[in-house]
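Ticket #4471: structure export looks truncated?
Reporter: QA, pipeline team
Priority: medium

Steps to reproduce: submit the single chain below to the structure queue and open the exported record.
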Amino acid sequence: MAKLTLEGGEVLEVGREGDAESRIDVPATPEQSSVEYVEVRPLGELGKPLGGPEEASSRLRALLEAQRALGACADLESVVTVLGDVALALVPRATHATVALAEAGSERPAALVTVATRVRGEGGRPAAPSGQLPLTRTVMQKVVRERAAVLAVDAPNESFSSESMLGANIQSTIGVPLWKGNEILGVLQLDSRAAPAMFDARDVDVLGVLAADASLAVAHTRAMARLLLAERRLERENEFLKGRERARSGELTIVGKSRAMSELLAQLDKVVDTKVSVLIEGETGTGKELIASALHYRSGRRDKLFVAQNCAAFSEQLLESELFGHKRGAFTGATDEKKGLFEVADGGTLFLDEIGEMPLGLQAKLLRVLQEGEVRPVGATQVRKVNVRIVAATNRRLEDEVAAGRFRQDLYYRLKVFPIEVPPLRERRDDIAALAGHFLDQHAKEIGKSVAGFAQETLVALAAHPWPGNVRELSNEVQRLVIQADPGAFITPDLLSASVRGATELAGRGAPASGTLKDRVEQVERIILLEVLREHDNNKTSAAKTLGITREGLHKKLKGLGIG
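Actual output as written to the record:
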């Protein structure tokens, strides 16, 4: 019997020529060849017919099922999971399927993020990997770089092999791009970690067709996600506009029935339909802009614009341009003519917040508008008539600013024709429970969480807190509480911030165990007042300063609580 020595890289087939019953591949040694077989299939050649009629028929049936499964996916996560499972079903010799997608908006062509890996589990069924799985990006980067499908039948010996491939024990691999037009959406990679030479060109063909369908599914679900995001944004904007319209229709309500707020609203009703300027004074966070908008929407100007501008937000030159407008070329950067807020608000109301921050030079121009009803844009030679009601607000004492020479006295008297003082929250404690409930509904709706309400002890603590940040601070506290609360649960005192919880501790030391909210709050107030008076040796002026109220306000509180 003659002996035949086979060299590395040669093939032995047993059987008749063209119909071999078995085949033996003799691996090449590293000295003989560093590459056994690599095929690179460009994008334009993917998705072509799948070989002979019988094989094409079988694989087309499988691809039809795959297409139906991909078409039923509602989100990107489902698409990549189905893609991995179907790929394993179409290429039975593959042991692992990994899907990596390009980062949305990334300008880097190889910025791939691995989003799903499926392995062949028990009974050949696809499953998620049971533990940490070593992966490699070598093939994926080659697919993206060459914009082509890549086949390596003996991966450890390929020219593009890497330590990561060896560490992952990848013997054979196929990388197929997911694409839309000229854009690479991602890569589907199939590995055989059992033996080399497990894949051939027919596997590339079928995965190319699968990738074409999967690419459409990836692009579709991503587009749907963007549309849903845009839809939610439009819904929020629509809600905002509806709120504006409700306000214009007179539905704007100011929460609060305390004596202080009743007196403020009575003052507001007296001035709504006059032309006089209104100066709203009060601490930061008391809701001065809300009062200004209520003044506008309750007046005959409600069908025109309410425009607000913070005078502390711009430099003098920019603020002048914002308020009065400018001509083209009036200054560096003035490439177009701009209409100022006085003209924008013509017929309506212009709210100037933080008026005490307005530079002296602009104060003189504002005075001219109040006196003459006309504005002159920056760089213009002619004036323009406007019919605008001015409502200004400040948290400073303008009398002190006038005395210090930082505010014009004539403008001060012109603005303070009808002053309105917005009381701080500590002087309207009867409104705290109602305000907290209002903010609870508002923030729960914004966050999309159902909250049962406040526990009684929580309302007592809220009502007893001094609220140096006023209504704004209360709104922020309630928003934080809504975020912390469990869905459908009551907001209990343990969820309160540390500063507010101090009121709960005081309440626990002296508040009655039962009774109305008003009774409990009055008892907590009594404890606070007595402690502060004791700290200041009964000096009412110093105690009032610590509490942030006037001496007269302290006397009124002490008398109301029956403290001599």
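Status: closed, not a bug. The export was complete when the record was re-opened. Leaving a note from the reviewer for reference: Residues 8 and 27 are 5 Å apart (CA to CA).
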